[in-house]
Specification:
5-stranded antiparallel β-sheet
Length: 385
């Protein structure tokens, strides 16, 4: 999940031919809207969350300590109570605990290494879910057999990730024998090395759906060309040749049915300092800017779009907006209502299961959430430009 804590502190299914028989679907054509919520040490106010427009909340994050699931922040238990109370407004809402994230994925490889170590974690996760009256668990391992945030990793991760979700599915089914379905999902990387180091054709059998993190395709702290954060389609000028569409097709080729793919979209952008004004900065050399500009949509939309020297442009090839300040040569890549309309249209046309977003509090007056809600629930009433 987008360099999870770094981002925060700078401003932060069910249809499967081969799936587990225990996985239950709601309705075949229902689209999911999955929102990651990252309150950190804050106490939630249920009135600040439009639960009526969400199908799932992935609460971020729990950690892994001594091989067990561990509460991430001091007010998490109280916040779970708040979210459960909010179900009076949406009884169908599902609340999942998301484990790991960019900063807290360091314990996965060791935890998954043996059946005994996995069992220790799974038992603690089941206890955590029951104690906090949750509906399931989201595994956000960033990333199997890859170093991520300086993590322990090993080739065994590839198979052990599969073993983890398989054994978790079995444990959740066991506690669900009273008739309740407990959800199991995974946040997954949108790059080829992720698919090469996982067995997604097997993983998809045990999870309800996968949240493909189709963003951070180009980042100013890692890339030397100012590319787009979350293009829907690939621009030929993109040196990374990346896009949400390309990754969806790669996931399908890897054995994940479209009906189990939930497309991740960002409620934030990246800010670049570029060296040239050509193409309004798009795909020009650049890197991090020394000027502090918050990348959340709640800052971009009211303060920067066609304001303060920034002009909004639209890349029709990628279906993505961007801003450029020619005087300061600052380039900002982000998603807005128009790009999310195009992504909703894509989700509907390609029979994907829905949309996931990072992160709830980065929205501005629910503009982006409302776009997803209308585009996925009332597709005839909203069109992309």
């Amino acid at each position: 999940m987008w360099r999870i804590f770094t981002a925060a502190f700078l401003s932060i299914i069910i249809i499967s031919c081969s799936g587990s028989n225990s996985i239950k679907q709601n309705t075949e054509h229902e689209k999911y809207i999955v929102g990651y919520l990252f309150p950190r040490d804050s106490l939630l106010n249920e009135n600040d969350i439009a639960v009526e427009k969400l199908t799932h909340i992935n609460y971020a994050f729990a950690n892994i300590k001594d091989g067990k699931i561990a509460q991430g922040f001091k007010n998490d238990a109280e916040n779970f109570k708040v979210l459960n109370q909010a179900k009076t407004r949406n009884p169908d809402l599902k609340i999942l605990i998301s484990v790991g994230g960019w900063t807290w994925s360091g314990g996965f490889s060791d935890m998954c290494f043996t059946k005994g170590s996995r069992s220790k974690f799974i038992n603690s996760a089941v206890e955590f879910i029951k104690k906090n009256n949750l509906d399931g668990i989201d595994i956000d391992w960033e990333f199997p057999n890859l170093i991520g945030y300086g993590n322990v990793f090993r080739p065994d991760d590839k198979e052990n990730f599969t073993n983890l979700v398989k054994e978790l599915r079995s444990a959740l089914d066991e506690i669900g024998k009273d008739g309740k379905h407990y959800w199991l999902t995974a946040a997954t990387g949108a790059f080829d090395d992720y698919l090469a180091n996982t067995e997604m054709n097997k993983v998809q059998k045990y999870v309800d759906f996968v949240n493909v993190m189709a963003y951070d395709f180009c980042e100013p702290d890692a890339d030397s060309i100012a590319g787009l954060n979350a293009p829907l389609f690939t621009n030929p000028r993109d040196p990374n040749h990346s896009s949400a569409d390309a990754m969806v097709q790669n996931y399908i080729a890897a054995g994940v049915p479209p009906q189990k793919i939930v497309l991740g979209v960002p409620f934030y952008g990246h800010v670049w300092q570029v060296t040239s004004s050509d193409f309004h900065g798009l795909y020009e050399p650049g890197g991090q800017t020394r000027k502090h500009i918050r990348g959340s949509f709640k800052n971009i939309e009211p303060n920067l779009v066609n304001k303060n020297g920034f002009v909004r442009y639209w890349d029709s090839t990628s279906c993505a907006p961007y801003l450029f300040n020619e005087d300061e040569k600052i380039f900002i890549t982000y998603d807005d209502e128009e790009s999310l309309q195009a992504k909703c249209k894509y989700i509907n046309e390609h029979n994907l299961k829905g949309a996931m977003f990072w992160e709830y509090t980065s929205d501005y007056q629910s503009h982006l959430l409302n776009t997803l809600y209308k585009g996925l629930n009332y597709p005839g009433q909203i069109t992309s430009n």
